[in-house]
What we know:
- This protein is an alpha+beta fold.
- The protein has helices at about 1-35, 110-145, 160-185, 230-235, 410-430; strands at about 45-55, 55-70, 75, 85-90, 95-100, 105, 185-190, 195-200, 205, 215-220, 220-230, 250-260, 265-275, 285-290, 310-325, 330, 335-340, 345-350, 350-355, 360-365, 370-375, 385-390.
- Strands 1, 16, 17, 18, 21 and 22 form a six-stranded mixed sheet that branches. The protein has a six-stranded antiparallel barrel with strand order 2-11-14-13-12-15. A four-stranded antiparallel sheet has the order 3-10-8-5, with no helix packed on it.
- The chain starts with a helix and ends with a helix.
- About 20% of the residues are buried.
Amino acid sequence: ARGIVVGQLSGRFTIIGGGVALVGGVIFTLAMGQPQPQRANSAPRPVAVFVDEAQRHAVALTVNSQGEARPRTQINLVPQVAGRITYVNPDFIEGGFFEAGETLIQIDDADYRLAVTRASAQVAQAQQALAREQAESDLAASEWEELGEGEASALTLREPQLAEARAQLAAAEAALQSARLDLQRTRISALFEGRVRTKNADLGQYVAPGTNLGEVFSTDTVMIRLPLTDHDLSLLGIPVAYNAALSEDGGVPVTLSATIAGQHQEWEGRITRTDSAIDPQTRVLYAIAEVEDPYGAAAQGGSPLAIGLFVEAEIRGREIDGADIIPRNALRGEGSVYVVEEGGTLSVRSVEIIDSNPDRVVLSGGVRGGELVVVSPIRGASNGMRVQTYDDDGEMMAQFSATYDEDPDATASAENDEANADGDAVTSAG
Length: 430
């Protein structure tokens, strides 16, 4: 019985061994039939970039700001005398135009004409009294010369009475002048040419001195207060206490623009002065731009510069004879630029920025005119990185492009590594 059991076990082991050998042969056959892996070249490929050429030429700096158009002169019309309004100028309405000295409102002047008549009568009486006192004074002086002895007193010569008569005449004349002024003040007008902004009184209304009849403003000049930072002042090259009247340039030129009724409009003006102090809240200094005749000459071929309009301002600053200029998309971060050297190597440089806008950056150092700057996105840039350079038309610039050369030693090493890997796989499979 024990022999029979041993024989059965030996047969099972033989079958298991045969199965293991068969599986090993299949694995070996599959491993030999697989394609051999190709090792990638260890040398990094050059990165493709688009470039543009840095320019060097004279440039006029500009400063952009914004502000609201305001009249240089704006007043409230108020009467100096009381009375009922008997006349209102047809142009005394919101938006109406008027001339300097034109009557806008007339107050009933009947009482004031009567006051002038009474004052004139008082002047006549005072003149008569003075003439009488003058005659009596002359008579007293003549009688004293004939009858008197020594020096006559002032009372004897009626000098006090004569002085009083003269004072009474001066008072009467002053009262007449006051009455005439009140009569003139019944006619309300402005001393300047302008427009009506608001109207608060109308025909038949009784008004007292100080009543607000309306608001008017002059149309000779419009002012715009433009906020400027310290950097803006350096670009303009003007002092903090700037006054165009004391300079020879007549003011800094400024172009104002706005969109009205879907149309782009522009007006030319000048910076005439700056505010007397820096704004304590915003820490900016306001410059005053003025546009002459905004409803006339300045509006030729376009729209007038209306009061209350919000405008954009482009102020012409100082000029730089030799400035390096690069496209805005060539600037990386706050002050870095990628420059491509001959042979296709990348140089990361720090630059000094004078001014920038959405289109270009003006530099004072770091990049020279004629050098190529990278304008396309690039990741992981570093000094010495190999790049292939392309211009705007997509043409590769061979002089500034690195080539991809395969390293024979690296290829051979890769083939040996692949052979060793295959041998290891076979061993493992066995």
